[in-house]
Design a protein that fits this description.
By secondary structure, the protein is an alpha+beta fold. The protein folds into two domains: 271 residues, no CATH class; 107 residues, no CATH class. The chain is built from 14 helices and eleven strands. Strand 7 and strand 8 form a beta hairpin. Helix 10 runs antiparallel to helix 11.
Length: 406
């Protein structure tokens, strides 16, 4: 596992331990569930882990967290942070840094975390359900930047909500009241159907029976609960075992470190007297400029690679020209161990250039010997790729000229 994977897996096991100790039922959710049943290990580029539980279980988990107060951990939700995006919470490692620039307005505890979503029962009271939808839509439209569906209905919801969130204190009271209201609205033990929802996304609908009994699966050598197979078919289709994992990945827009506490990073930003929103805006502008200039950078790099390949060809020519007859003899006699040892310098430079998308040939006959050795090792595809990467002019003998062109 990478350091990021290890940090996320540690958080996931801590959530699992709390749930086991307190008899709380939960399930791995979405990508975390999918990668567990697909591969039994965490994806190398993944930056988030997800679980899901019903309202009563969420409340018990939050109570258990307050009782245990794990060192270096925070639980972020509408109860303590009005900028938090979802009905649910994040179990955060405060000793790490995870700043997702396009989405950092969804949270303010900028550490790696397990997202705990709520499996919401369909409400028994339609009026209460509608009021909850109005509040959630208005909240999503109001408190953060980003894409939004603009229509008269949503604008009306936003106006209703904005009037109640004029100051930080009012915003926190609003989200606390909304959390309490949602806990009552979306806890319906008699419901046959339920759903989950992230910030500004469509709902995913499920049947409650898919979550009756946890199905155990292995992730990184440890057992975790997942829903029944119908859950995966509903989200990803019948070919879910071959479905490519989505989710947030490491890009230039994500700042992540498993050793730096996010509060220390934020103190450094504050020392520049630069508000976070302004910092994010400047960094995103810088990244865009980098991306716009990347084609030119790639072109320059490619020409440098070509120049260094020319140097590699000359070095190899000088090295192998005196021993070419010996290479041919060893090949003819089938003395492959000795041949492999002599070809080691060529193999090293060959693979270095291959990783840059370049073929490397200084002598066609020695190239054939090298490719034959690769095929003997069962690397036929690699040998074929390297051969197609050789420019035609490099298949001609190297001619060393003096200053007088002789």
């Amino acid at each position: 596992m990478t350091e990021i994977q290890r940090a996320l897996f540690t958080l996931l096991t801590e959530v699992d331990d709390i749930c086991r100790r307190h008899g709380i039922t939960y399930f791995l959710h979405e990508n975390s569930a999918l990668e567990a049943v697909q591969k039994n290990h965490m994806g190398e580029e993944r930056l988030n882990a997800e679980v899901i539980m019903r309202v009563p279980e969420l409340l018990r988990f939050m109570e258990a967290f307050e009782q245990e107060k794990p060192d270096g951990r925070s639980l972020e939700s509408w109860l303590n942070e009005p900028r938090f995006g979802n009905f649910g919470c994040r179990y955060v490692n405060d000793n790490t840094l995870y700043l997702d620039l396009p989405n950092c307005h969804h949270y303010t505890h900028y550490g790696l975390a397990v997202t705990i979503s709520v499996l919401r029962d369909f409400p028994s009271n339609r009026i209460r359900s509608k009021l909850a939808t109005v509040k959630e839509t208005g909240f999503e439209m109001t408190f953060a930047e980003g894409k939004r569906e603009v229509n008269r209905k949503n604008e009306f919801y936003e106006k209703l909500t904005r009037a109640k969130m004029k100051s930080p204190g009012e915003r926190l009271r609003f989200t606390q009241d909304m959390f309490d209201e949602f806990c009552k609205t979306y806890d319906n033990p008699d419901a046959e159907r339920c759903f989950s929802k992230y910030f500004r996304t469509e709902r995913h609908h499920y049947y409650r029976s898919w979550f009756d009994e946890p199905q155990m699966t292995t992730l990184e050598g440890r057992e975790f609960p997942v829903p029944k197979e119908q859950y995966f078919i509903s989200l990803y289709g019948r070919g879910y075992m071959k479905r490519r994992l989505s989710g947030r990945r490491l890009t230039s827009y994500v700042i992540v470190d498993t050793e730096i506490p996010y509060k220390e990073y934020m103190r450094q930003i504050d020392s520049f007297a630069l508000p976070l929103d302004e910092y994010v805006r400047h960094r995103e502008a810088y990244i865009r400029k980098q991306q716009e200039g990347q084609p030119l950078v790639d072109t320059i790099k490619h020409y440098w690679d070509l120049l260094f390949r020319t140097g590699d060809r000359f070095d190899l020519y000088e090295h192998y020209a005196p021993i070419k007859d010996e290479l041919v003899r060893l090949r003819r006699q089938g003395r492959h161990d000795e041949l492999k040892a002599l070809l080691a310098p060529y193999r090293e430079k060959l693979m270095k250039n291959y990783k840059l998308g370049l073929g490397l040939c200084f002598d066609p006959e020695i190239l054939d010997i090298m490719l034959e050795e690769l095929r003997r090792e069962g690397r036929e595809d690699l040998a074929a790729q390297i051969r197609t990467m050789i420019p035609p002019e490099h298949m001609e003998p190297i001619v060393i000229k003096g200053y007088d062109d002789e």
